[in-house]
From TrEMBL:
Membrane-spanning segments: none
SUPFAM superfamilies attached to this UniProt entry: DNA/RNA polymerases
Organism encoding this protein: Tanacetum cinerariifolium (Dalmatian daisy)
Protein name: Gag-Pol polyprotein
InterPro entries: DNA/RNA_pol_sf, RVT_2
Chain ranges of the Reverse transcriptase Ty1/copia-type domain: 1-130
Amino acid sequence: MDVKTAFLNGPMKEEVYVAKPDGFVDPDHPEKVYRLRKALYGLKQAPKALYHELLKFLTSKGFTKGIIDLTLFTIRYGEDILLVQIYVDDIIFGSTNTKYTKHFEKLMHSRFEMSLMEEMKFFLGLQIYQS
């Protein structure tokens, strides 16, 4: 799964100001700068802002954040488990029961604009086999 416009989703936790690019400057106020309320592409804080937005959403839905890997989230449904791995703006997930993967897809689409990719075959140079 891929979060569309990923880096435009996270609210800023610190004050960041930007100037308008050349050609967009207000002639009446050429020195005016603007405070960002949400992250922008290319901003060093953007991935962290997205992570915190995903963290807040997933934990509000009952997921537990990993202790060692802070980008791994889990939730148990009786004997079944759903694993969710966040890698920048990509979300990799799987479950011992397919009904929970379908539920997770719907859950994410309810909050974020997502594009669902095909079944994963490779990730970070590792071959993935799903059965």
